[in-house]
Amino acid sequence: MKMMSNRGGIIKCKAAVAWGAGEAMRMEEVEVSPPEPSEIRIKVVSTSLCRSDLTAWLSQAQPQLFPRIFGHEASGIVESVGEEVTEFVEGDHVLTLFIGECMKCKQCVSAKKSNICQQLGLERKGVMHSDQKTRFFVKGKPVYHYCAVSSFSEYTVVHSGCAVKISKDAPLEKVCLLSCGTAAGLGAAWNVANVSKGSTVAIFGLGTVGLSVAQGAKIRGASRVIGVDTNPDKKEKAKAFGVTDFINPNEIEEPVQQVIRRMTDGGADYSFECIGDTEMVTTALQSCCDGWGVTVTLGVPKAKPDVTAHYGLLLTGRTLKGSLFGGWKPKSDLPSLIDMYLKEEIKIDGLITHNLAFRDINKAFDLMVAGKCLRCVIHMSNEL
């Protein structure tokens, strides 16, 4: 792949810039600054649209964070490195990370207790971790970042702790999904819930994350995986990822939690909320059994961020857990998932429903709004 390089200088390239909430992306020529100390500049090869990109794009909560370049689920090639960077060299293949890992803070050295790095956790201000400034400009005007990545640009700059080196044998147009959605679902099943063999599982929302939870539960040996979704087209796709029973709430006459409790003799061992609907968290809790039922919430809420539940649901022994990136320590753990994919131990390809050229990025947003895709992979070369 031909890669522009201007080591130490500004690169001009194309980026899909959002100028306002819900406004179509405009393809702009942007100036991408060189990497500062502890940063790397990446030639983005493939990036996929995640629902959290869509949620943030539609949100009116932070209108000041425009213009902005979205995208965080991506793969690419290191174009240049800043001072103090020793783990990357030009030409390395990488995945971007929306939460980083500094390897030094209390959270990072906490073994498996946490993956929320104190230095490189979720970045919500639209600027770089290191100096609170942007690396993108359009005609001299600064452009905000998204999730410390901004992969809807031919080149981007990230902190070196927000990227992980991967095998060059891994197809970049596939494994980009592991930088967020697929890894998040697998980790929720394995790391957060620790799904056990022979258990029953209920999953609310069968998008990329929900299907990855199902895949993880199946690999762990769950005896029954119940998928809940209002889109009937997902029924057949879900079977390929381990879903044994499909419930469409629009096609039943009683609350879905009652149906699940009857199917599982009092409630599922584990339930997963993968929609981004805080009201559904209560439904997921009610679908779990007394005593040991575990509910994991993964979705990013579009509205009403507060979770409410009757105390009795917890008093009777249920547990509610949150999950960010499936509990994975991204730099430490993602290479093992890459290896599993290369050994065909986990599935990614079936989650990719569309492959689009960069110039067609707005089509990806349209497809997701209409509920007609799982993952749209956007190929930055435009050669499709």
Automatic annotation (TrEMBL):
Its cofactor is Zn(2+). Transmembrane segments: none annotated. The keyword Transmembrane helix does not apply. GO terms for cellular component: cytosol. Residues 20-378 form the Enoyl reductase (ER) domain. GO terms for biological process: formaldehyde catabolic process. One of its GO terms (molecular function) is zinc ion binding. It comes from the Eukaryota. It holds the Pfam family ADH_zinc_N. InterPro entries: ADH-like_C, ADH-like_N, ADH_Zn_CS, ER, GroES-like_sf, NAD(P)-bd_dom_sf. Keywords: Metal-binding, NAD, Oxidoreductase, Zinc. PANTHER family: ALCOHOL DEHYDROGENASE, ALCOHOL DEHYDROGENASE-LIKE 6. Homodimer. Belongs to the zinc-containing alcohol dehydrogenase family. Class-III subfamily. This is Enoyl reductase (ER) domain-containing protein. The lineage of its organism: Eukaryota, Viridiplantae, Streptophyta, Embryophyta, Tracheophyta.
